[in-house]
Amino acid sequence: xxxxxxxxxxxxxxxxxxxxxxxxxxxxxxxxxxxxxxxxxxxxxxxxxxxxxxxxxxxxxxxxxxxxxxxxxxxxxxxxxxxxxxxxxxxxx
Amino acid sequence: xxxxxxxxxxxxxxxxxxxxxxxxxxxxxxxxxxxxxxxxxxxxxxxxxxxxxxxxxxxxxxxxxxxxxxxxxxxxxxxxxxxxxxxxxxxx
Lengths: 93, 92
Fold this sequence. Notes:
Chain A is 43% helix and 29% strand. Chain A has 93 residues and is of the alpha+beta class. Chain A has helices at residues 3-13, 19-38, 84-92; strands at residues 43-45, 49-56, 59-62, 69-72, 75-82. Chain B: Belongs to the bacterial histone-like protein family.
């Protein structure tokens, strides 16, 4: 399911919502989470899961094509931990 | 950040009441959860993809007793962040 399909689903689920309003809501949901992560903040959605920022150390790796040694700088990456309710629902279905 | 912060933003920007905003946020996550429960993936451009993966049986060990056990096959949810989100987090 893509973002635009999710927007349609929300219109179907709530009979009083216009597509434009649904679009605004879905955008706010994901923008709020992105903004929080950008500022290094943790995101915690009960029943769904939580997002945290994890640091990755700098490392040396090889370009698999040329065999050349490249230095990869340290970076931050978002990490998602599935919430208990969703983990159980996904596994049991 | 929690659901309450998302509700607040919808209340401020879209003009629904707090109660309606809270119900809408709840519905959004319910829709996402039931889609994933059915094994479908969720693809959000600019944010990332949520994909259900099947894991086969594997052998493991109880780290406390050293006893060998079989970890049963299961379905797990994975999140792959989009390039856009990763770049934004690294201020690029």
